[in-house]
Amino acid sequence: MSWRPVYLLVCGLILAGIVHIAIIFLIPFLGSRDAAQQISEYSRIGQFQLIQDGQQVGISDRDPFFHLAVCRYDLEQNALIVSGMKSSTFWSASVFDERGRVVYSLNDRTAIKNQLQLIVLNPIQMADLREHQPEDVETSIIVETLSNRGFVLLRVLNRDSSWRARTREFLSAATCGPYETR
Amino acid sequence: MRLFFNVFIVIVIGLALGGYSADYSIQRSHGIGAINIGQWSAWPFVGGSEVDPYTAAKVAADGTIPLGAAEGLAFEAAIDQDGDLLSKECRYNLTGITPSARLWTLAAYENDGSYVKPGEAGISSKYSGNIVRFPDGSFTISISNSPQPGNWLSVSGEGTFKLILRLYDTPVTSSSGLIDPIMPTIRRLDCVS
After folding, report:
1. How crowded is the C-beta side of A61, counted as CA atoms within 13 Å?
2. What is the CATH number of the domain that holds B19?
3. How many domains does chain B have?
4. What is the pTM of this model?
């Protein structure tokens, strides 16, 4: 009889474990503040869009010294090519999958010739690319991803207001379009 | 009746403990998946595809966009050297050096992720390129409501806040990194009230 409280407690702890794991795994799917979801709803396919301060995209803990631009991709039809101009200021870019996980990231020093040129493709397109070996392969970073949808986020350092024009120029010159692997 | 009571007890324990432990494990500082250096916490696996479920849950719950591993690493601090929560009514000195990085930024945030409103004529963020340093490369940043000589990061209002120091293009995130990174210390000087 005296074992009953212990038994109840053990059952409670087991349930607590299940609840704990369920919450942790469900937050990314059910969370309402999820910035990745807001970004992919805001962004468009085939074009970089600036993310301004105080816009409908709610990103917590934004770095005030960086300007952001985002472009959504869908590899169903075509692979994606992202390119940018040369810049003297620091920039970095990350390829995110649908769920907001970083697939690949680079900065201006790790890019080929310090220039943004990125081809994002799925394994089928990768096989096509291997077969055809177009010239772009030599100057581009090839990113293979298993998720067909996601977004590319470009960040540029805006060290003070005098750099604003150059920062904006870099972001508006960045392109994001379909790439034929065949 | 007794069965109902027993089931009720089990469910209460399960929901309370499960909910609390889940919330606790993804809280802002010193959570699971974090590395801690002094008052600072960073989530080094947030910028890779092998992000753990706790870090993923934290990112979604906070509504942040993580830095990729090649971009940099963000360190958060919500407490000072003595373990007290950072308060906008107090004056702090952030002293020391950062791990090597191309550049870093420091900014003060409200707990909901928006910027702390700076006081008059001040700004609530700092960039490594325009701070004053000592000859040995170390620096002191004064965090305060009232203007301070040297590097001044201005905060205004009341309540707690947090600091985020972001290292960009840093070897700390590479696999060879995490070689005893040194972070500046946050020391409280005095408080208004």
Report:
1. 27
2. 2.60.120.600
3. 1
4. 0.88
- CB nearest to A16's CB, from B6, B17, B114: B17
Helices (H) and strands (E) in chain A, counts: 5, 9
**Is the CB of B10 less than 8 angstroms away from the CB of A60?**
no
Cβ of B103 and A90 within 8 Å? yes
ipTM: 0.85
Q: List pLDDT tens digits, range A73-123.
A: 999 888 999 999 888 889 999 999 888 889 999 998 888 888 899 999 999
Can you list the positions of beta strands (E) in chain B? 35-37, 40-42, 72-77, 90-96, 103-109, 125-127, 139-144, 151-154, 162-168, 185-191
- The residue to which tokens 């929560």 are assigned: B85
Show me where the domains of chain A are located: 1-31, 35-179
Q: How far apart are CA A93 and CA A83, in angstroms?
A: 11
Task: Count other C-beta atoms under 10 Å from residue A152's C-beta.
Answer: 25
CATH of A35-179, one of 3.30.360.10, 1.20.120.1630, 2.60.40.1610, 2.40.50.140: 2.60.40.1610
